[in-house]
Amino acid sequence: MAVQGAQVVSRVALVLRLVSESAPRGITTAALARQAVLTRPTVHRLLVSLAAEGFVDRDELLGTWVLGPELYLMGSVAAARYDITTVAAPRVQALARETGESAFLSARRGDETVCLLREDGSFPLRSFVLFEGVRFPLGVASAGIAILAYLPENEITEYLDRRHLEVERGAAHSSTVVRERLALTRRTGWALNPGLVLEGSWGMGAAIFDGRGLPAWALSITGVEFRFATERRAELGRLLLEHAHAITQALRGEKTQRNRLI
Prior knowledge:
Layout: H1 6-21, H2 29-36, H3 40-52, E1 56-59, E2 64-67, H4 69-82, H5 85-99, E3 102-109, E4 112-119, E5 135-137, H6 142-149, H7 153-163, H8 165-169, H9 175-188, E6 191-198, E7 201-209, E8 215-224, H10 230-261
Antiparallel strand pairs: 1-2, 3-4, 3-8, 4-5, 6-7, 7-8
Pfam families: HTH_IclR (PF09339), IclR_C (PF01614)
GO molecular function, one term: DNA binding
InterPro entries: GAF-like_dom_sf, HTH_MetabolicPath_Reg, Tscrpt_reg_IclR_C, Tscrpt_reg_IclR_N, WH-like_DNA-bd_sf, WH_DNA-bd_sf
């Protein structure tokens, strides 16, 4: 029996997110079914329907699915409201240049952060945990820790009660440990990820705030562990906060200008 209503929408959204996360290589129907915890025939039907509307494309040579042209067109329209990469890109580049580490811009999307930009620094040893399109739950990577730390307390509590990060990510993400990490972030202003996603790959992040004063994006840097020694973190944190604050101020200036034009 065909699945109806909201469940169909939820499944379509899940399929599109998984295809997006597989970029640029794409994903097979079988792999998508496993990750979505859906039957292969169900996933195949959804993909064929999405392809007919231009939301996904199939690479016949590789047998994988990728995002389609219709999403590009929709994204171009949405970018006028939500895209901050034009404002943030020079800051991401400067952060990579000044620190030598890989620098990133991530956006909050519901319970997750999505990496939007990556700029590699000059240091030859790099971490490839983060790349454009990858998603992490809030409170896991440094960008998500920085964002979660500055959400209203009731939202933090509701999220931690609902998401069960300890089950998903292990004991280092129990509610108690995450809260300690959030408290430290609020004291220093920047978040530290001590190899939580991949052993030996450390990161630091700082939140960027929207016009309501809520954390909606984050700047972050990642690299090998010895590059984040205690004596260096203060300088890295200062640079992160400096560039994140500059983006926040630039976005507030853009909002003020738009309001004057209305």
